[in-house]
Amino acid sequence: MSPASIVPLPLRRRAVFVSDVHLGSKHCHAAEFADFLQGLRCDKLYLVGDIVDLWWMSQRRAAWGSAQYRVVEALHALARAGTELIYVPGNHDRSIRRFCGLTLPRMQVRRRAIHLTADGRRLLVTHGDDYDAITQFGGMQEKFGDWLYERILTGNKLTNQVRRRFGKRYWSLADFLKRRSGAAERYIARFVQAGLDDARKRGLDGIVCGHIHRASLFEREGCVYANDGDWVESLTALVEDPDGTLRLLTHTGETRALLPPRAPRTLPAGKELPYAA
Length: 277
Description:
Elements: E1 13-18, H1 30-38, E2 42-47, H2 54-59, H3 66-80, E3 84-87, E4 103-104, E5 107-109, E6 113-116, E7 122-125, H4 132-135, H5 139-165, H6 173-178, H7 182-201, E8 206-209, E9 216-220, E10 223-227, E11 236-240, E12 246-250, E13 255-259
Helix pairs in contact: 1-3
């Protein structure tokens, strides 16, 4: 076999976080998500809510075909390969919360989880809908926003169908429009602050969440905010490298944002860190 024919194995990640796949809804990019999963090698895979859109499937016509079955098979393949799956249900797969606390075959279901990174950071893992009471406007303004968002997603899908015909890469019309909306930006800012406040209140080093369909990764006043995005608009995932580096990846594997490992703790001469088994 020639060196040129050798396909390198993908980098093994300590952990991968994905959310808001919305399998079963017409706006889900199931084929891209299946491709992403099939290229993964990881110790842990956190499914951070709204993976299957049970709300959509109960209210409207379900969109389920070969791409969706590929997603299910890819998840089974990861589990068979030794990946630990942790499911943290969201608001669109809320009924799965009745199984929280159970360890199902090849999967744990948790209301929320705490992930320990390689560099010792403790991160709250939660979908994010718990913060709705703090962040949402409510009333007719919110209902109009939901109606408008549905139309924007339809436009997003049509736009990218045209772009694919011309060989252009995926581009989120929905994210482009939201970033030009003052109301949307204020909502996202309140959500981010609510998540950071929750992590600090629990004595943790940061939060990993989804829910708002806005991928983001940064550190504010020593606290990590990581939103793994979605597979409706941004097509992103959060990954942890073996050294504790956190990366926000696109569905094609490109790094959109990065947080390096936390610097090792130092103590005065003669002092030692306590040993933990």
